[in-house]
């Protein structure tokens, strides 16, 4: 939001407050100021000139030789290349030795053999952006008004001596997206009362708006308020200079006297409006409704939009003429031929406007205000103000009456709070009189009895609804710098880690030892990323006032964030990546209470293993690389887990993914990112794992017992099994370890073979089994007996053939 200091001074008396001092005070009370810019700074010797004579350059088909009066005894000869230069006009002249935008110095020189004493400037050469300059002057020089005094500095005529204060408005302070809102804020800071301009509305009593229009709203939830006024006999022309300067200093391009008034009112009231050419509407009916599937609308930018049912439309009863709150239709725009204006002032559903803006990638000053909220009590006032000003600037007449097809009256908001609550929250010792003074400065009516305040919140501050909001208002008006700073008191006690904290610390140390680097990412993400890498879709936790589309909901997984980090590294030629993150995920519990939080661990791995040397070539990571890291974590934490093949994750490769289980409870997954998903993230083959640490904390863990090295030798036996392909390693391992007893120390798979010789649907799996008795030497009979039990169990359960 850009705030003109001159304009603000007209709304509230701040002549004794310098712009930079005002900016500093606003930043200290809660509305951050990004910058304060005075457009004329850095420029000098730029004056008003009068073109007394203008002739074509003899040696050029596009240059003109101008004799310009700059308030001195003799005329200045200046060569100008602007196509619209002509005599009899007052222009902007940069004298020799002057500096224009970009610190460019203007010198005396020659152009095609003709002396040029300075430069006739366009607005671009004074630092104005192309997007702000009126279209009639976009490709040429700017003509000053006749009342401009020749030889005087040009800056006051363009309000370039104004200070432009750039505010960074957070979503909860959308009331400051208007000059009136900023004036209220400044009034609260300095305890002064703002005064707003009034435009006298004179209506034509001989005509009534109902003779011209019928207006209806199909769903009042789509358009909470919808008002329409009519101004007839208008003449479309450029706006007066005061209005053009005001808009340009606020970052908006002047268009014509009707459109400029709607933008001016939007900046003043924070109330977007739209003007339709009444004669181009195509009927005497206005209907606000949801779009139907397959409908199209060509918007003001000349683009045909394919509409969807979530879009709110302004129609002439049958055909769309505007995309509500976002952009008007091309067929009903205000042009030089317009004589009757239908003026819309409305309050649309903010969620629908936000979705429509996102759908079409159309973001405007109007849509921003509709999304963040409006003051519903000034809609009628803004409508009357705009209608009266359009009539004044266009020579038109306001038709009697206003149609309100829907009208929204907000509920009265009263927040109760005690003086003790305020002081306890802020650590202050404010008196009731001091707090009451702050409420008066804010313009909040209140009743106080026995140090309890019942504060009535005006509709212009729709962000205040609870006690905490009141505490914040008191804190920022009292001054954050004035809040006392204290150190915690009490007796010092020895610190220590909880069991969960120690486990998390152990996980960090283990993964860093395995070569993984820690990543820390935002808990806020997009809806699409939040819902990835989960078995079942669960309700998302969305923010009411997100800072951006990329941080609109709380995450339900850590994997998406890690893949974003992988993509970032890949784009910067870092191809071997091993990352992990420990953090919370969030799931809505279906009520207004806080969401459910659960701590997760996630890993992401891509590229090659680090053991590359002159003796050993690099080796790409695979499923078993990341599975080994996961197993290493669980083994060191004393948790017994198993893995089970899974195809339940849409974002993971169905043939290279496994569930991680403790007992029969699934606590996470490990697998390869689905190639289509990897392509979406623009990353190569990548492996990920995500584990619920909450489930790990709750599970029983084996205590690690240290023993002396056995004195007695071990016995190793190999066994080869011919089994069906459907039988998994885990199933065979469960049988072997179950029948192996206490003497079986380790089981390792050392060979898998498939081929035609084995038969269709068969595979051979070979295991090494190590037996050891810490109390004595094993004999062959003991080992043979155990091996027979294992072979029998395998044969009975899975019909294996011992090879």
Automatic annotation (TrEMBL):
Sequence ranges assigned to domain FDX-ACB in this UniProt record: 710-803
Binding site residues for Mg(2+): 463, 469, 472-473
The TRNA-binding domain, residue ranges: 40-155
Reaction(s) the record says it catalyses: tRNA(Phe) + L-phenylalanine + ATP = L-phenylalanyl-tRNA(Phe) + AMP + diphosphate + H(+)
Keyword ATP-binding found: yes
Annotated PANTHER family: PHENYLALANINE--TRNA LIGASE BETA SUBUNIT, PHENYLALANYL-TRNA SYNTHETASE BETA CHAIN AND LEUCINE-RICH REPEAT-CONTAINING PROTEIN 47
Subunit structure: Tetramer of two alpha and two beta subunits.
Family in the record: Belongs to the phenylalanyl-tRNA synthetase beta subunit family. Type 1 subfamily.
Classification via HAMAP family: Phe_tRNA_synth_beta1
Annotated protein name in UniProt: Phenylalanine--tRNA ligase beta subunit
